[in-house]
């Protein structure tokens, strides 16, 4: 793989908490690739995602660079980065309908074409006819799919997945995972998946970074 095909590049990243080095990473992710990050509790997985999304807590200090394509976005504020986060909790707004949730944050455009895109996307993930429903009336798996569409229709270049399947039972987990990974590959996004689950890493099929236990919570 040459450099031009690497959509996301993390160069010489070091994150410190006080004087302690929490993590040190050099990595690249191609369009459509899913890089998995694993490691014990406290090893810095969520901290890494915070840095990637531009929301590192001031308790930490980071050095290194983050590039998307040729653009250095290390200092770019979080709301101007085309990075999207998908969490284990779908975090849907209950005062908005399913389509209102998906349209939230979509790029400017004609309202009628936005609506059609939402309807097409809902049909794609098996949620036809659910556009007017309140999120709380959907099952956990259906909510997960709405959360995915909300992120995807915002057209990110990079998607950060923080244990997004961990609240789903095993059958639903597998189906949702296949859908999410297929969308990532079809749309050519660079993805970073944080998980504790080896089957997630196997399904992602890409490289795996194991954060060391250096900064991890010590066991008694
Ligand atoms: N806002 C913060 N201020 C100070 N320390 C923090 C903060 N957030 C996390 N930490 C500490 O930084 C270390 C890394 O935490 P982080 O949440 O990144 O670990 P993790 O690998 O995601 O853990 P888990 O698998 O349990 O979610 C831990 O020791 C944690 O206690």
Q: Could you explain the architecture of this structure?
A:
This protein has 220 residues and is of the alpha/beta class. The protein folds into two domains: 1-82 and 159-213, Rossmann fold, CATH 3.40.50; 91-155, no CATH class. It is 30% helix and 26% strand. It contains six helices and nine strands; from the N terminus they run E-E-E-H-E-E-E-H-H-H-E-H-E-H-E. Strands 6-7-8-3-9 form a five-stranded parallel beta sheet, with helices on both faces. A four-stranded antiparallel beta sheet has the order 2-1-4-5, covered by helices on one side. A hairpin with a 2-residue loop joins strand 4 (60-68) and strand 5. The longest helix is centred in the C-terminal third of the chain and has 18 residues, at 170-187. The protein is globular, with a radius of gyration of 18 Å. The mean pLDDT is 89. It binds adenosine-5'-triphosphate. Adenosine-5'-triphosphate binds next to helix 1. InterPro entries: AAA+_ATPase (IPR003593), ABC_SmlMolc_Importer (IPR050093), ABC_transporter-like_ATP-bd (IPR003439), ABC_transporter-like_CS (IPR017871), P-loop_NTPase (IPR027417). GO terms for molecular function: ATP binding; ATP hydrolysis activity.
List keywords for this structure.
ATP binding; ABC_SmlMolc_Importer; four-stranded antiparallel β-sheet; Rossmann fold; five-stranded parallel β-sheet; AAA+_ATPase; 30% helix; Spermidine/putrescine import ATP-binding protein PotA; 2 domains
